[in-house]
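Predict the 3D structure for this chain.
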Amino acid sequence: MPSRSFSTAYLAQAAELAGNPGQLAAYNSQGHCVVLAGPGSGKTKTLVLKLARILAEDVQAPRGAACITYSQECARELTRRLEMLGLREAPNLFIGTVHGFCLRHLLMPYGRLADLPIQFPLSVASQRVSDRLIRQSGDELFGANHPYKAIDLGRHRRSVLNRNSVAWRSEEELAAWAEAYEAALRQGGLIDYDDMVVYGQRLIAEHDWVLPLVQAKFPVLAVDEYQDLGVALHRIVKRLAFDGGVRLFAVGDADQSIYGFTGADGALLMELAEREDIEPVRLQLNYRSGAGIVSASEMALGEDRGYRANDPTRQATIEFVLCPDGLADQAAHAVAQIIPVALDSKPGRTLGDIAILYTDYRAGDIVAKAVAAGGFDYIRVDTAAPYRKVALTSWVEDCAAWCAGGWRIARPQLRGLIDRYLAFHRANLDDAQARREGQELTALLWALRADQQSARDFVASLRNGILDRLLVAESSLADQKEQLDRMTAALAEGGALATLDIASLGGRDGSPDHLNLLTLHSAKGCEYDVVIMVGLDYGSL
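Done. Predicted structure below.
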């Protein structure tokens, strides 16, 4: 039974699982559990309810649980779902990326003690610095305009963790490039994002004394989107779960592994699910898609997975449109013909219910140009977006949502915003310091409440009030500062987001007034009424 001090809101939602044997089995699991969750099968609901139950019934504070997921957007959605159940990120609940977990809960507390060959206190290279050092080290080794690609460099670093192995030297040029790049980082006293996970795995693998310390704080580890997280996390998970006594609850779908170019491997999830000490659970009921979409997905897989639509009578329409004059013609047709018809065909449908998907940022440029010419506002999620979603920019967006009216309904929760802000302070704050920082943030956000305000002025006030001071003090946030600077530049006069108001900034991951432009990869896990896919020319995918 839940502790007296814990919200029991999860119990009402848990009762809804009775009609789904897979979800109920996952919710009732006692030991290590791997949930193989098909598309639209309610895996996020299952994960959130399981976390709520674990924190209420199985773990007593100050011990807690860590939940690792693929991206900042995924972490943000999990946080919102948990807040609706009365939970929030707190010292005994971590929700974030594998990079954040390795940095905050492995390298920062234990890395210096383990004498890892990196400089402390940790300083993380910004994306701009990392890109420059990659380019310089490659040019010095191979000359300008060499044929080797940075994406292959990253994959090699993430996939081959033993630098003394044959596998590391099997791609000699990439190995040499990686070593030269890492030497340049160390010369500057820096680590990068990949270093966080690589050295986190090394810490766990080589130092037994770390295991009981992690288990004492986080006796439960949940992993979302397991198929996308790669070799290093897989080894961390196995070490903590099977050598360190940490209970594992992992969720994923090997069929949805689409990040092989980064080193992710869906086979790692299946390897885990096949262990005798793991309880595997399959979720096969699709709540998201119509019966036609479910059937088409199994045809695409070429294998019967046993997936079925929750509502067999609900049918989706799949239409093919021939636009022979290339991507620009396709984008123009979508803007001039498909979107207006879609908006008119269903009462209450908004731009936020519609998405245009494309292959990469170059295609996104063409689509964005057509959408702008059509007079539609849009949100763009790809590598050419004005700024990247990192923990800091997502926090700023959520502060905007709170100040733009969310404070009236506690969505997001103020306490959660305070806890996330305190987590940016890499140095440990004592109780009095944490209280002062929380009070200062609360006073600032209270003063910034406004239903109508430019996003530019809001971000400037937030930076002047607290953030710029924090960023000066915390060198480990240099990479996140770069994205905040990009956000600020985009909101400036003449910038890509110059007209954005505070409410729209708070809804940057889903606004009813903005059309959604996403790459195929970025769209994973998203749900829209209408999806327009451009660039599906024969042989292009």
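The mean pLDDT is 89.
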